[in-house]
UniProtKB/TrEMBL annotation:
One Pfam family recorded for the sequence: PPR_2
Signal peptide: none
PANTHER family: PENTATRICOPEPTIDE REPEAT-CONTAINING PROTEIN (PTHR47926:SF452)
The name this protein goes by in its record: Uncharacterized protein
Keywords for the protein's UniProt record, in alphabetical order: Repeat
Ranges occupied by PPR repeats: 111-145, 245-279
GO molecular function: RNA binding
PROSITE patterns in UniProt: PPR
Biological processes annotated in GO: RNA modification
UniProt keyword Repeat, yes or no: yes
């Protein structure tokens, strides 16, 4: 009889699966398996190993942890159980790709899932040609195989290859893309406004095939249309979605904010809260951006405070950047500078340059002087020529012609050049 307090397999697996954190899952695993009296090949070992790997590896991403568990499974004889091997491979792909490569080469029986995992792993490592070779060598592909390869091209920015492979899937295979495949492709369209027509075609295909617009696909469509400037289409998709969580709401709010529709974005945010949907960090990025575009200073400050105090979220550099820009444009330069000083993350050059630009607009050299040397220390002469020019202009506005000339001389000496204005259209 096992010494574990869990006398049955279902109880033990349920306890591990429902653990609140990786540490708790590992502790339960040790109690039920490592310290138990189960026989060498008791099914609890293999099933629990799969659960523990899924519960821990995706969150911890610790190579030593995976190696430790791998060693235990070797001793217990579960190493080449197909589900355990697949879970181990996934853990190594996340934590230590060289170990994943070795394990994959040692596996006597590879199935479609393990090959798909390695395709994604190779792609994430930038070895896209190796991923494609593995894809081409597969004896049998499922839709996840195609999604992994297409996603690999997307992750490496090889948009043309991703769409070419998608067309091959459409015309040369009996398989048909599912929601996850379309979501992957729509992320390409969202990243590149020039592919909006293809995004609309993907939407039309999903409608023609009778595909359910689930939360993931609906969010991807809303995001694609919103980033492309087709806010009416984004709104139509949003309202036709049968189920909505925080993600489609956030996509609409961010899209409206990006295109200067601050008041509408805030109206969406109020409706979202009224319907009981809890905002996340992405939502507040859109909200604060909307406040910045609409000049809603008090609203922006109130929501920034609510983000951390009411919802317990951690403000990132982009959240601080929105508020600093909001305060700077409103002429509240001392308050903006005070926020920069109290930031819990290191301010980047974008935030500091934004504040300097506001100092120039409002002709406030006093605040600018507190930032100039810090900004120049962060600036890269090869790409931040505009920063040097801004500093020179600020000195000139304050009548400090000697300092302005010094910066211009520095620009000439280091061959600093302002980047020409350009359009992506």
């Amino acid at each position: 009889m096992p010494s574990s307090p869990f006398s049955s397999l279902p109880r033990a697996l349920s306890a591990i699966k429902s653990a609140s954190n990786p540490q708790e899952a590992m502790c339960l695993y040790k109690i039920t398996v490592v310290n138990g009296d189960y026989s060498r090949l008791h099914p609890l070992g293999s099933h629990a190993a799969v659960f523990i790997l899924k519960a821990c590896c995706s969150r911890l991403r610790c190579a030593n942890f995976v190696r430790h568990l791998h060693a235990h499974l070797l001793k217990a004889g579960h190493h080449f159980h197909v589900y355990v091997a697949t879970a181990l491979l996934h853990g190594y792909v996340l934590a230590s790709f060289p170990d994943a490569r070795l394990l994959f080469e040692e596996m006597p029986n590879r199935n479609t899932v393990t090959i798909n995992t390695m395709i994604s792993g190779y792609a994430k490592q930038g070895e896209i040609s190796r991923a494609r070779l593995l894809f081409e060598e597969m004896p049998e592909r499922d839709i996840a195989s195609w999604s992994a390869m297409i996603g690999g091209y997307v992750g490496q920015g090889e948009w043309a290859q991703a769409f070419r492979l998608f067309r091959e899937l459409m015309w040369a295979e009996e398989l048909k893309p599912d929601q996850s495949t379309l979501v992957t492709l729509l992320s390409c369209c969202a990243a590149r406004a020039s592919t909006r027509l293809l995004g609309k075609s993907i939407h039309a295909y999903s409608q023609k095939s009778g595909m359910e617009i689930n939360v993931q696909l609906g969010t991807a469509l809303v995001d694609m249309y919103a980033k492309s400037g087709c806010l009416r289409s984004a709104n139509l998709v949003f309202h036709r979605m049968p189920d909505k969580n925080v993600m489609p709401w956030s996509a609409m709010i961010c899209g409206l904010a990006t295109h200067g529709r601050g008041e509408e974005a805030m109206a969406f945010f109020r409706r979202m809260k009224e319907q009981g949907v809890r905002p996340n960090e992405i939502t507040f990025t859109g909200v604060l951006n909307a406040c910045c575009h609409a000049g809603l200073v008090e609203e922006g400050k109130k929501n920034f405070h609510a983000m951390t105090e009411e919802y317990g979220l951690t403000a990132g550099v982009h959240h601080y950047g929105c508020v600093v820009d909001l305060l700077g444009k409103a002429g509240l330069l001392e308050e903006a500078y005070d926020l920069v000083r109290k930031m819990k993350v290191e301010p980047n050059i974008v935030i500091l340059t934004s504040l300097l630009a506001s100092c120039k607009t409002h002709r406030n050299l006093a605040v600018a002087e507190k930032l100039i040397e810090r900004v120049l220390g962060m600036a890269n002469p090869d790409v931040d020529g505009g920063v040097y020019a801004l500093v020179s202009d600020l000195y000139a506005l304050g009548g400090r012609w000697g300092d302005a000339e010094r910066i211009r001389t520095l620009m000439d000496r280091d061959s600093v050049k302002k980047r020409r204005g350009f359009s992506a259209i």
